[in-house]
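Handout, section 4.2: multi-component inputs.
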Amino acid sequence: MGRHREFDVEKALDAALCVFWRKGYEGASYADLTKATGVERPALYSAFGNKEALFRKVLVRYYERYVDYLPAALQLPTAREVAAHALQGAIDLTTRYPEHTGCLAIQGVLAGSDEAEPVRQALIEARAEGEAQLRERFERAKAEGDLPETARPDALAAFLLAVLHGMAVQAKAGFSRDVLAAVAEQALSTWPAKA
Amino acid sequence: MGRHREFDVEKALDAALCVFWRKGYEGASYADLTKATGVERPALYSAFGNKEALFRKVLVRYYERYVDYLPAALQLPTAREVAAHALQGAIDLTTRYPEHTGCLAIQGVLAGSDEAEPVRQALIEARAEGEAQLRERFERAKAEGDLPETARPDALAAFLLAVLHGMAVQAKAGFSRDVLAAVAEQALSTWPAKA
DNA sequence: GAGGTTTAATAACGATCATTATGAAAAGGA
DNA sequence: TCCTTTTCATAATGATCGTTATTAAACCTC
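Output:
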């Protein structure tokens, strides 16, 4: 019983995701959010909770729908292909939409006042999880003989993530897809070869 | 004639630099700035102009006093040494001060509301200038036979900058100096060798 | 159709934002 | 000592921030 919700929750989340992607967690105001979603403030609160809760919902959605290239990459047969696919996926993601370049998850790690601290921690944890998955995948590759005995899975994971993050920063700074592709190619050229 | 200024302009700039480094451009409020500098708001305005002008002064100071490893790196004899010194300098800079990790210049490139746009543009330009210097240095290295004919100076500069930016993000996320050193080592591992 | 329940929209809340008007205090030149 | 000039501190500006009362409208069940 009761009145039906008049707006589409999924579409509102999509619109909020775009706002956060473009302006970051703190840079996005409720004025922006209501304008983008077409939903008044109290409705957003009753549907999603406060700003932090809304951002966390958006973040889950972001990983599910936009960073899906990472779990896909992890299932490729060789470590090199994993890295190559992750790099290509990051290039596509960070340059596909001209109105919100870069990576939503990274815009919030940096900067921010004190009240953004819990959000920053959440982003750091999400990032750490991705790094752990890469490290485990590279350890498996080493065990399978796909990487040489001298390879350091932890260093490779950290390095790959550093390049991914760096490309996200560069995409936000307006770098073209071609330049990012050259960066990815250079990063892969350092990849340890099979024994 | 007239009353003398009671606070030290240089020390106030140093304190403001720390605040911006820790919180970013938008995350830093005048409450933070007056607390850190010990200078009341109107004195900050009369001495430095508004927030944007203050940040620009701080940014110049940052490059002069903290990113001095980059011009130093450019004068080393080989391209590989340039890259190695830049990477090591970035590691030191982004992890030296526990209270403000990462890179001041990068905290502001990402995220931010509309009114931070001019500051973001200034940071992007500063970053582009650093990239141009690296590219020219690598072109020289190629001409001097220090880099092979197949090397692409623009790609190398973009790649090096991507790693530097990625490490800055990781430092802000709490990465240790050791992990960053492993990232730098991996980045250098197959630097194009002299023909 | 009436009662109870959920959502919608308007408008306000206190807090904080960057910025500045105001007037007192301090200094040098006459 | 008076006058001019510059800096100082207090406090207020209008705007915007995230968050809610409050009231009106829409719906299901009985």
